[in-house]
Amino acid sequence: MAHLNKYDRVLDAYCGIGTIALSVADMCKEVIGVEINKHSIRNAIDNAKYNNIKNAYFIADDCTNYMNHAANTKERFNCVFLDPARDGCSREFLKSLLAMNVRKVVYISCNPITQREDITFLQQFGYRIKEIQPVDMFPGTSHVENIVLLEKV
Hints:
Elements: E1 9-13, H1 19-24, E2 30-35, H2 38-50, E3 56-60, H3 63-72, E4 79-82, H4 91-99, E5 104-109, H5 112-123, E6 127-135, E7 145-152
Helix pairs in contact: 3-4
């Protein structure tokens, strides 16, 4: 969905054990995963080593703190993957994302309500929905994982 290329620098926010970051690493120049859970970050680093992935780096930090720092230091990403907890992203996180002027955002969520709220906020600042793909990862329940590609207009 992100249509990454070998020149793209990618951020995987709320990366957990690095599943998304590691799955896109061969499609881009570099991917940075950020997760507050230090144990998950250790697992992500081990997963990268085990799979001989050399362009994926993982940072144990609160995603909002990391985004604030990245925005303040003018760090650049072509694409950001978001897979936050059910509460969605903080406004502070989203404002830092806006300050970074990221071209593409792939927002993955198990809570379409908070996902909609965050996307509505981003749309006020020039992001447009390009694609939506629900995935039934919870058969027999009313829950769905929803993936939305947003692009900066």
